[in-house]
């Protein structure tokens, strides 16, 4: 399955298109929901790409919206059919739905711009670091669930090791000092960051403490960019994950570029990571 055929990506794109044509037709979410006999909340989930939609219901919506472009209708119907496929992450049954959606979008992306204030980005975490993180989940997942999530995270990392995804990670220096799992976990984790920084498709930059205040220092986020489609911003939240498009992507890109300007160069960042590893996490 190619990146652009990711079922989650197709559902997301289909939902975005449906929202666009609904708004152009001046139809409310409630009115659209009535047409296909679902609740407004389900209609919103369809437009967010969280759930799929069957052909007859999609056709009914397109008729209601006055979409008579035959090519557009067929494209959307094809997306609906393809969006029912199962991605590789389906074998990890315990993954939260919002996490599954993110994995699907990430699998379809060509570039990931990731800013983290507290923890190492998931695609750069070691097995032990990931396990230490997930073991502290307030909802206390079972040991089996933790291992499934760790395995899924390692599977995700193939994206960068195969070169299918370009990644630019900007980290606050605090990420390097926070002893998740203790020194025995942190030393190999920082070594893994140094190894990742040597990959042609990975850039890691650190914003040092001496930089003081900087843009978006209170909020981590990720920008997923696609070769043939508009980008998406992902923000993980305690009460729910947020996906943003359009102008929000442009604004977050401006912020991300500002963060990179505030950060050390990739070479200087690697030197800092090595210094902290060798001074704080000795064998």
TrEMBL record:
One Pfam family in the UniProt entry: HTH_31
Tree of life domain: Bacteria
Alphabetical list of PROSITE patterns matching this protein: HTH_CROC1
A single GO molecular function term of this UniProt record: DNA binding
Coiled coil: none
CDD domains reported in the protein's UniProt record: HTH_XRE
Xref: InterPro entries: Cro/C1-type_HTH, DUF5753, Lambda_DNA-bd_dom_sf
Domain HTH cro/C1-type as annotated: residue spans: 18-72
Listed name of the protein: Helix-turn-helix protein
UniProt organism field: Micromonospora pisi
């Amino acid at each position: 399955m190619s990146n652009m055929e990711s079922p989650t990506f197709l559902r997301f794109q289909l939902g975005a298109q449906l929202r666009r044509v609904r708004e152009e037709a001046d139809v409310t979410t409630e009115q659209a929901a009535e047409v296909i006999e679902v609740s407004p909340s389900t209609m919103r989930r369809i437009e967010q790409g969280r759930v799929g939609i069957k052909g007859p219901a999609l056709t009914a919506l397109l008729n209601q919206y006055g979409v008579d472009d035959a090519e557009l209708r067929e494209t959307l119907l094809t997306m609906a059919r393809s969006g029912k496929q199962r991605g590789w992450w389906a074998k990890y049954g315990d993954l939260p739905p919002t996490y599954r959606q993110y994995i699907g979008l990430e699998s379809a992306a060509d570039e990931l711009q990731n800013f983290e204030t507290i923890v190492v980005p998931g695609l750069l975490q070691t097995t032990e670091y990931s396990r230490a993180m997930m073991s502290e989940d307030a909802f206390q997942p079972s040991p089996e669930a933790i291992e499934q999530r760790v395995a899924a995270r390692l599977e995700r990392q193939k994206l960068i090791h195969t070169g299918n995804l370009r990644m630019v990670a900007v980290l606050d220096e605090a990420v390097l000092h926070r002893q998740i799992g203790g020194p025995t976990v942190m030393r190999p984790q920082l070594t893994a960051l140094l190894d990742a920084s040597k990959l042609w498709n990975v850039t890691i930059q650190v914003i040092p403490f001496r930089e003081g205040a900087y843009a978006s220092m209170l909020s981590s986020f990720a920008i997923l960019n696609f070769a043939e489609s508009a980008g998406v911003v992902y923000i993980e939240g305690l009460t729910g994950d947020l996906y943003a498009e359009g102008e929000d992507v442009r604004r977050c890109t401006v912020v991300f570029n500002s963060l990179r300007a505030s950060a050390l160069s990739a070479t200087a960042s690697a030197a800092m990571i090595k210094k902290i590893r060798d001074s704080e996490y000795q064998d």
